[in-house]
Amino acid sequence: xxxxxxxxxxxxxxxxxxxxxxxxxxxxxxxxxxxxxxxxxxxxxxxxxxxxxxxxxxxxxxxxxxxxxxxxxxxxxxxxxxxxxxxxxxxxxxxxxxxxxxxxxxxxxxxxxxxxxxxxxxxxxxxxxxxxxxxxxxxxxxxxxxxxxxxxxxxxxxxxxxxxxxxxxxxxxxxxxxxxxxxxxxxxxxxxxxxxxxxxxxxxxxxxxxxxxxxxxxxxxxxxxxxxxxxxxxxxxxxxxxxxxxxxxxxxxxxxxxxxxxxxxxxxxxxxxxxxxxxxxxxxxxxxxxxxxxxxxxxxxxx
Length: 303
Known about the structure:
This is ABC transporter permease. The chain crosses the membrane at residues 20-39, 66-85, 106-132, 152-174, 181-200, 276-296. Pfam families: ABC2_membrane_4 (PF12730). The protein is an all-alpha fold. The protein contains twelve helices and two strands. The chain has a two-stranded antiparallel ribbon. Strand 1 and strand 2 (255-257) form a beta hairpin. The longest helix is centred in the middle third of the chain and has 35 residues, at 106-140. The radius of gyration is 22 Å and the shape is globular. It starts with a helix and ends in a 6-residue tail after the last helix. The model has no long low-confidence stretch (mean pLDDT 82).
C-alpha cells in the first residue's frame, strides 16, 4: 500500500508541467466564455426582468451544463487518460518502469486514481466558475441578482461524474494499449454523436439507451433537471432533427398541421424512465469491471 501511494505521488509530480493541468481549467473557461457570450450577455441590457425572463435566467445555468457542456465533456473524458499515459508512450519508458521493484498493475491503478480525481476536479472548477459568473452578473446589473442553485448544480455535476465512470474506464484501457492521441479523441467524438442521436428517442425500454456508456453521463445528469412527461429531453444539438408536435411531415417534405383532443403523451404515454438506482448501480459496476480487466491487461509484457 505504501508503494502504491508513492506511485500516486510520483504521478502527481509528473503532472506539474503537463498538458493535463492546463486541460482541466482551460476547458471550463472555454465553456464559460461561450455560455456567457451566447446566452447570458443578452440579459445584461435589461433593466427589469419579467416573469418569463426571470424563470429562463434562473434555470439557464443548469440547462447549459447538461446541454452545452455535453459537447465538451466527452472530449475531456477522452483526453484525460490519453494525456496521463502520454509520457510513457512518448519517451518509451515502459522497459525502465517495469524493471523497477513495483507491481506491473500498480502504475495503471495510480493513473486511474489520478484520472478519477482530475475528472471530478474539472467539474468542481466548472461549478466554481458558474458561481462566480452569477455573482458578477448580480453586481453588474442588480436585476440579474438571482440566487445560485448550488445544491442542484452539485447534484447534477455529481451524477454527470458518476455516469462518466464506465466511459472513463474504457478510455483508460484504450490509452494504456494505444499510444496515439487520435484514437481516444475519435472515440470521444463518436460518444458525442451517439448522445446527440440517441437522446430523446422514445423507446419501450429506455434502459437500453441510457445504459450505453457514452449516453449514460447525459442521461444521468438530465434526469436531475427533467421536467415534462417525455422520457428524456433531447440533446441540444439534436433538437432541430426532432419531429414537431402536432405536425405531420409528408414524404414530399410538406408539413400538415394536425389537431386532436388530447396531446400525444396522453394518448400514447411513454414508458417510465430508467430509475436513478439502476443508472448508479450500472455505472459503478461497469466501471469496476472494466478497470479490473484493464488492470489485469496492464500486467502484460510490454517489451
